Amino acid sequence: MKALKVLSAAAVAAVLTLSAGIAVSAATDSGAAPLTQNETAIVPVEELQVRAEVESADCYEGEPFSISMQASGGGSSYMYSCSVSDSSGKTVYTTQSADSRLTLTLNEGTYTVSVEVTDDLQQSASDKVQVTVKKREPLEDAGTNLSKTVINAGDKVTVNASFTGGKDPYTYQYSYINKSTGSRSCTSFISENTYTYTMPKAPGYYTFYVTAKDALGQMKKVSMDAAVVQKTGAELSLTGSSINKTTVSPGGTVAASAAAAGGTAPYKYLFSYKGPDGKWVNTDADYITMKSKSISLPKVSGKYTVRIAVKDHAGKYAEKLFNVEIPAFSISDSQISASSVDVNKPLTLTTKINNNVGSVKYHYSYHYEGKAWIYTSDYISSDTFQFKFSTPGTVYVRVGAKDSLGTYKEKQFKIIVKLPVPMDVSSSTVTGTLVPVGKNIRINSIVSNANGDVKYHYSYHAEGKPWIYLGDYTTASVKNFCFKWQNVYYIRVGVKDASGQYKEKQFRVCVYSNSVKKTVSSTTMQYGANWKSGSVLSLKSGSVVNPIKTYGKWILVRYNNRTGYVYNLAFGGTRNYSSISTSTLPTIADDIIFARGKSVYSLYHYVNSMGYVSAHNSTLENLCVYILRYRRGACYHRAALLYYLLDRAGYEVVRVSDGIDRYTGGDPHNWCIIKTSQGWRHIDPTPIIGVRPIYLETDARVSTLFSWDRKKYPKCN
Question: Which residues of 34-44 are buried (b: 16+ CB within 10 A; e: fewer)?
Fold first, then answer.
């Protein structure tokens, strides 16, 4: 139905111009007068209409499509409102626009698109259209293939691509990889659905790939396997194959490396092992192209066989076997920090495990020899343990170890626990014990068994003088001394450690000067200031010595870099015997030994030559004084003086003081028995008329003349 509208003359003219596309006059064709500017006219308008249409033949999920909205009639401008609802009536999209074209992207399903248009005359019209949105078929392989799957080395092979689904047009990418070496080839995306390769001359197993990409960017990849083969003419072998180790920890691995040759390449490999149970275990379900493999072995110790097998493209087979051992769980390399230790000193047992499975637990125990074992605790995780023993003795310490499989091993050690050795400085040294005046004497202090830091202090004294201390304790283990006067000096180092132990060592040093003495008679240098000490060496008359110090009637001297004591009469002088007494007897005896010599015979002859007189027995000293004063005496005097002289000369001698002289009819008799290199022997300084001298005689000879209590005296055999 047409609408009516009251228009001005100008508006009517404009409408006519727009509607007809030509300019018209406001006058009617009836010849009536034209409308003035202010006059109006009534013009009929076409009814407002709208038509909605889907522009695409097919609509696909996720892809944009358009709906056109064609309005006609009505006023001069339109506004479009649009709503989209799914099959359940739920509105999923609304919009309002002056654009007569609507672009939508929807999921799969059936939708109703409702369109309403309004013009500037406030008229409206509507329309509906149904849209079915489909899912596009995925891009799929439709028979992509190789022209051949067994290719001679260096020959050509063609890849034929065939795909369906997706959205045209398609492009293709072609590639391959050598599964044995990892080498590859790849093209960019091209439009051709075939591609021809010239294969390498090296044989191998290859995987070919074709990747198709549609207009929407969807991609589909297809793989195909083929072999590039080469017949060698030689027998198939694994001569160069190897494994990296022949001894493996439980649960460890062996790296096997295959090196095939001969037959028809390429090759495939199978890696396996056989354990103590005799059953082969493969690392993979089938043969593989990889030339190497890490083979995991069980956690059970024993002898194993590792096998590398190869199969060529023609189906030929070869293998190579290797022996591998998994040693048993062991702690035999465990160690103890010491086999001997002081009481209360720590002793560490360190357990070294080999070929264990999983974690290991330890328990430690000990026992003293002859006693029961004492366990320190239950199983613990520490592989070290510290023992400390407070009582000396022989101790056995033991570690027991158990791994996760429950395998148990133990090791035992024998330890001597002893009382601690005290600190010692006995190894300390001095640079010299016989030095000239003014020469440095160095003490080098060597300390053993000290606890902690050691400190030293030094002191010295001249013989017969008080000690002089050289400062407090110091860390210096070396000290120099220098003396300006001849004398005998004692130098000392005192050592103290951190625990308070104190030890010292003393050195006797003889310091001599350039002053000299010359002997006037032959004599000996004695080790000590007496005739008993033994002779250092003999001195001839006129020997030049350096005197060091005087000790009564003895002088300490240096001669040929040796020291010794020389009797003072050797340098001249006489002794006055006018007042012999028991107090001067030692000096008189030493004078006699110096004058007569130290030999047994010379002293025996000296006494034997004395005159004889009858007398009664008395004390040893009185008998000696009498015979020396009067130069005569009975057997008592003679035996006493000989014993006294021999004893001071250093001999081992006894005096028979209760013997009987059977030769003279049973009178008491005295003589001596002396120890010689041939044994004990009788020596009698009293002459017997008509009988040869009794000098170093045996019991058999003397028993014909004398009798004595043989139980009291040494046997002279």
Answer: ebeeeeebebe
Choose among 528, 555, 559, 564: nearest CA to 545: 559
DSSP three-state, residue 255: strand
Q: Closest Cα to residue 125, out of 114, 136, 135?
A: 114
DSSP 3-state of 331: coil
The residue assigned the tokens 């027991």 is 400
State residue 10 phi and psi, 5-degree precision. Answer: -65, -40
Q: Give the number of residues written for the chain.
A: 717
Structure tokens at 337: 């920090």
pLDDT, tens digit (0-9, with 9 covering 90-100), for 116-175: 999 999 999 999 999 999 999 999 999 999 999 999 999 999 999 999 999 999 999 999
- Give per-residue pLDDT as tens, 425-474: 999 999 999 999 999 999 999 999 998 999 999 999 999 999 999 999 99
Which among 441, 496, 499, 492 has a CA at the least distance from the CA of 474?
Answer: 496
pTM value? 0.48
What whole-number distance in Å separates Cα of residue 132 and Cα of residue 665?
171
The token duo for 164 is: 């369906």
The C-alpha atoms of residue 475 and residue 7 are separated, in whole angstroms, by: 131
Name the pairing type of β-strands 434-436 and 502-512.
parallel
Distance from the Cα of residue 607 to its chain's centroid: 83
Instruction: Tell how strand 59-60 and strand 124-134 pair up.
Output: parallel
CB neighbour list of residue 19: distance below 8 Å, 6 or more residues apart: none
Helix (H) or strand (E) holding 19: helix 9-20
